[in-house]
Design a protein that fits this description.
about 400 residues, alpha/beta, Rossmann fold, about 40% helix, binds adenosine-5'-triphosphate, binds magnesium ion
Amino acid sequence: MKEVLLLKYGEIVLKGLNRGYFNSILESRVKRALKNVQGEFKYDYAQSTLCVYGSDDADMDEAFEKAKKVFGVATVCRGIECEKDMEDIRKKLLENIDDLLGSAKTFKCDAKRSDKKFPLKSPQICAECGGIILEARPDMKVDVINPERVISIEIRDRAAFIHGNGEKGAGGVPVGSSGRAMLMLSGGIDSPVAGYMIARRGAAIDAVYFETPPYTGEAAAMKVQTLAEKLTEYCGEMYLHSISLTEIQETLVQNCKEKLFTLLLRRFMVRCASRVAEKYGAGCLVTGESLAQVASQTMQSLAVTDSVATVPVLRPCIGLDKEEIVVRAREIGTFETSILPYEDCCTVFTPKHPDTRPDMAEILEEEAKIDVDGLVERALATDHFVKLG
Ligand code: ATP
Ligand code: MG
């Protein structure tokens, strides 16, 4: 059948006067998602729906799967376009009836008439179409409470559409409509999920990875790159920065109290990441921290790391249990990579008894022993990046 994909908007519908802006971002995101799908696609926006028309050779199955992953799309339906008259609706309904009903045994019709000039009202359209279906497929039963299929007939301004049950889209708002974020991306399970969640709220993402060569190796760096590459499927292009913390780590080990290593290191990470964020136009940092998950994620520890940030630190996983984060990681396809056993700079230097209730005065005392500014500058000088996606 000659299909059209109907991409129903989620929250964009709420955006009032900004709607035009959101539409154009969403359209460009969908275009990007379909870039390598076979066929030519045309786009038309009307009444909270982006219609995607494929050329005759278009791979609509793949286009459907790709469109579902675009943030800002609440539901995707595979529909058929008709002229706005009951004769054509009847004809198309009959031509496509088996595809529309699938293996269902019960159905109901649902009509939306946004063109109020259409001669039949919604209940009449439902009754007509229900009758057409029952006549052609006497094996079907109407069930208005719990139907296996809902056959929707939408009379819109430009044309009419028929479609079956839609599938859930990725939700959220289109990437790029909420600014840019700098994700602190380790090789762990949590930070890729945090990046995904913030991208889903509309932020474009760049990432920064802290390495400590030779304590952490090329394989660990490649693992992080693989994770970042995976995230680009959702968030589009990103720059992945890599910064060496080796001098910082070694300085901490030689000069500072072991129980504070992790926190002192995290403060350096946040200082460096803030600087990278400012330099490349990101308005916030994003981390995968979850309250109380480990020693460095107690409320007191978070306060200690936050205090050196010069941009807000967003922590979308803060209220999630590890198990919930794992479920997300599996869904978005990062879990298998995250559990590959490569060293992370935090794990190489983990203190045996980390402080869970750090005292700010003590932290500052330890930092007074070392050249914080110089260490940050020299770490930033090691920044090198790749463009992904
Ligand atoms: P993750 O699973 O994301 O590694 P985690 O539970 O292991 O998180 P930590 O190792 O304490 O927790 O790190 C907390 C957060 O700090 C991470 O989610 C990440 O955002 C950031 N982070 C930790 N290590 C690095 C690193 N090497 N490079 C960049 N960011 C890091
Ligand atoms: Mg980690």
